[in-house]
Amino acid sequence: MQLTNRALISPSIYAASILDLRSELRAFEEVGADFVHVDIMDGHFVPRMAFGADHVRDLGKGTTLPLDVHLMASQPELMLDDVIAAGASVLTIHAEATTQLVWCLQRIRRLGAHAGVAISPATPVCAIEGVLNFVDQVLVMTVNPGQAGESFIPQTLEKVRRLRALRGKRPYLIEVDGSIDDETGRLARRAGADVFVSGGYLLKDLKGGLPILRKALEMEDDHAER
Ligand code: ZN
Predict the structure, then answer these.
(1) How much distance in Å is there from the Cα of 40 to the middle of ligand 1?
(2) For 23, 192, 195, 206, which has the most beta carbons within 10 A of its beta carbon?
(3) The overall pTM is greater than 0.90
């Protein structure tokens, strides 16, 4: 994964109706999304259930965009081989979900995917400082994982700033996930985020919403350069 100055947008397929997945995937490509964000939820680490490796494989058949898979599951070590074999380009696992974190991150890279580590709102950045050399991406949850309709938690932006300061020459991208719209996206961009997951906000009106989000992120860049 290349560090880029451009903000990258990763629309979440979870917000789409399962009946519309094929057309939503096509629409993601048409509006210039950078990834497809796929949330896998196990009903244990988070209260909901969604998608599995077989679904990742099917989604991959329906798009040329890279699949940015976010595994919200306990013991990711039991699933990561299957999810990567199914076509995940980026596989992000939660720091809170395993006692085998470094092993998992190394395994993800060894299997040819980009490795990501995620932290829930209650987890501080210092919990993952020891693994930052093993990751291509850090995902900061800006709401509690697996909960619907939550409000953006502004205190999480401090974690984005901290990760940006820690990055130095390490090439990890900083991704934000949870209640991202043109306003919260702009705040996260200002704090230093690179990748923006957006679900409900974009899916309401993808063709109108994605250009608005991209424009808001670019406006923040213009503002920063002045
Ligand atoms: Zn996610």
Answers:
(1) 8
(2) 195
(3) yes
